[in-house]
Amino acid sequence: MVLKLYGADLSTTTPMVALVLHELNVPFEYHPVDMMKGEHKAPEYVEKQPFGCVPYIDDDGFVMFESRAICRYLCRKYADRGGRELFPFDDLVAFARVEQGMSIETTVFDRAVIAMFVERVYKPMKGLQGSEEAYKEAEALFGQKLDAYEKILAKQKFMGGDTFTLADLFHIPYATRLKPRVNCDFMESGRPNVARWYKDITSRPSWLANKDGVKAISP
């Protein structure tokens, strides 16, 4: 049976999984979940994803949630279709470098960006007033984090080494929303190595196919 992806375009986690599926050229069906209508909190959805979040996959009866874990699973399952390159699990040093890059994305990049989105996106979505002072503080902190990225990327082409891996792919959904959603152009200006890396990862066919919304792959 064809793998099924249940998620929402407005999330940043659903595109992560879609990008991996496109990188590996794995056929899948996309089943949009309308979060604005609360479909992710419906009993039949929570039965599959007990936290009421997106996404989850149904891989021929095997149900799995947590986007980054799903991506690792897909890379292991489809190792010979490019998964080993995205997630080099059988080369200890390469594996460690990619794990390090993925950890940076989760604990440094993601947290810094979310703090910015809280003030200019998430609070207004709930009818609350965002704080420009808090936003400016978050933006300044994000800039400091990118200064460290600039140093890392001066020594290597990508965040996990010199080849594109999950350590880079995981950054794409939030990175591409910075300018249109919070008017922050830090990914493209002021730091040449970051700008070069950002251009590289957002020029990949997998992102170009999904940048306007998740696109399924027919069998």
Description of the structure:
By secondary structure, this protein is an alpha+beta fold. The chain has two domains: 84 residues, Glutaredoxin (3-Layer(aba) Sandwich); 113 residues, Glutathione S-transferase Yfyf (Class Pi), Chain A, domain 2. The chain has eleven helices and four strands; from the N terminus they run βαβαββααααααααα. Strand 1, helix 1 and strand 2 form a beta-alpha-beta unit. Helix 6 crosses helix 10. The termini are close together. The relative contact order is 0.15.
Protein traits:
53% helix; alpha+beta; 8% strand; 4-stranded mixed β-sheet; Glutaredoxin; 219 residues
Summarize the structure.
By secondary structure, the protein is α+β, with helices and mostly antiparallel strands. It is 53% helix and 8% strand.
Overall number of strands: 4
Tertiary shape: globular
CATH structural class of the largest domain: Mainly Alpha
Hey, roughly how much beta strand do the residues contain?
Answer: 5-15%
Total of domains: 2
Q: Which residue ranges are poorly predicted, with pLDDT under 50 across at least 5 consecutive positions?
A: none
Radius of gyration: 17 Å
Q: Total number of helical segments?
A: 11
Q: Could you give the order of the helices and strands? A: EHEHEEHHHHHHHHH
- The end-to-end distance, rounded to whole angstroms, is 10 Å
Question: What strand order characterises the main sheet?
Answer: 2-1-3-4
CATH fold group of the largest domain:
Glutathione S-transferase Yfyf (Class Pi), Chain A, domain 2
